[in-house]
Amino acid sequence: MSLGLKTTSDGGEFLPRIQYDARAGRFFQVDRYQDSGGNWENELTELQLPLGLVFDMDNIEVGWIKLDNGVDFQMVKVGEQLPDQPSDKHRQGFRALVYNKALGIRHWNHSAKCVITELDELHSQWEAERNRHPGQMPVVRIKHTAPVTAGNGAQRSTNYAPKLEIEQWIDRPDAFDGVVNDNEGVPPPKDEPKRPAPSAPATRETEPAAAGQEF
Predict the structure, then answer these.
(1) Pick from 195, 187, 186, 143: which is nearest to 167 by CA?
(2) What are the residue boundaries of the structural domains of the chain, listed by start?
(3) Is there a contact between 77 and 60 (Cβ–Cβ < 8 Å)?
(4) Does residue 185 have a pLDDT over 70?
(5) Is residue 203 helix, strand or coil?
(6) What does pTM read for this prediction?
(7) Which residue spans within 22-114 are E strands per DSSP?
(8) Of the candidates 30, 52, 26, which has an alpha carbon nearest to the alpha carbon of residue 208?
(9) pLDDT (tens digit per residue) in 38-63
(10) Residues 129-158 pLDDT 10s
């Protein structure tokens, strides 16, 4: 007998996220706010490269992602059996927790093949090095992107792969304590401030902080 209860999420994603536009090779931080009418909106701020992020590689999830007409994640931890594809709108992808002091803890998910390939290589590097760094987490430096062209003729297209490389290892930041890599994560403040919608995405022009200040 089925209880008839819904077990998937409609995208009530409380943790903020970063977003990567593979077609343009650009990273953005995405912050949600309520406009004067009480409607939730996204504010995008471009993140300049090089970008340093602590990756929670132990808890990366893989599975199926649907981002149109309602967000849905059907994910498992790396090494577990993938669920069946829920619909033809779900694409294989990953979801990870990332952190630096400026951004705080955020989700990063993607389903583009050129991005998945880079994360797969990063995961292999992490597996090869992790035993030499017990209790620590990798700092991944994204210094540049590289064009990846696929298809032929009118179907030819170019995306940009973010080049991910472990730069150093640090002790696990306290910011990860109690954070879960799922759609809920940690709840937002109850009294989220309301403010007018921005006219255009802002661009972060500052120089990257020194390693000790970033994390």
Answers:
(1) 143
(2) 17-176
(3) yes
(4) no
(5) strand
(6) 0.79
(7) 26-34, 40-47, 51-55, 61-66, 72-77, 91-100, 104-110
(8) 52
(9) 888 889 999 999 999 999 999 999 99
(10) 999 999 999 999 999 999 999 888 778 899
